[in-house]
Amino acid sequence: MPPEHTEAPSATGFAAERLASRSLSWRQSLHGMGPLAGLVLLCIAGVLLNENFATLDNAMNVLTRTAFIGIIAVGMCFVIISGGIDLSVGSMAALIAGSTILMMNAVAATVASAVLVVALGMAFAVLLGAMFGLAHGLLITKGRIEPFIVTLGTLGIFRAYLTYFSNGGAITLDSNLSTVYSPVYYGSLAGIPIPVWVFIVVAMLGALILNRTAYGRYVQAIGSNEQVARYAAVEVDRVKIITYVLLGVCVGIATLLYVPRLGSASPTTGLLWELEAIAAVIVGGTALKGGAGGITGTVIGAVLLSVISNILNLTSIISVYLNAAVQGFVIIAVAFFQRGRR
Question: Whole-prediction pTM value?
């Protein structure tokens, strides 16, 4: 019998495939450009609503205030991409701030150099953040407890201990130490505030780790499908623990920048920071279900939220007390549009 004739794919079929591939690529590009387009539109609206919005001083003020949440959001981005969540970062920052101030005040009584005391306090803040992150990672991986439950519990624990240490009031940094420490927040380098420089460095390191290392690929693989990652010999527990440690370090860095701003810590310190950090991550395009996201989008998301707050403060369109409500609506809206996305 003659061989069965197989019909070759038509030119029309190839064209349809190319068109579908091109359409998918465009949709992905538009989705990635969404946060940036939103930020640009907000800035245009801000200029139109208030002429002071476009000043250099206002821009530096927005970026400086973004730095705290932005640094935490970089760590939160890793956690959410891996399929986790951390609701305790605001309370963690508050306890780190209070503990650091208590430690510095105690050490200052025996160490003559205020600069050395401040340096020790900064290192202590980062170390304490890493330890808290390690505790979260171990409870989630070895204890087999859901991240939501673990961090919801520590949210209350951290803030309760700060309230206990402060006796319901404020923990204040020694005035001599405050004078030495204040340039960390109020100082600038090449006209750019130091917190902004730190934010830039943290974001660049985060992007490098996420996009250029095996660990970053493992984080994304775990968020996409944890079971498949286990079958692929990825050490899922170890990767998750490191992810929460990274977030804790980011919280520690943000806190050591925040302490010299007011020179004190109270039960209201870091209130709702977890809401702002999570909002920055998902507004920046990271899938709430995990597996996809990026640091660049997270940075844009953090700046975008700060711009919204800044516009509300400058224009009084609505009460500034509704800032958290606006962020909450943004989280719900973005989560709605992300339905089914992974």
Answer: 0.88
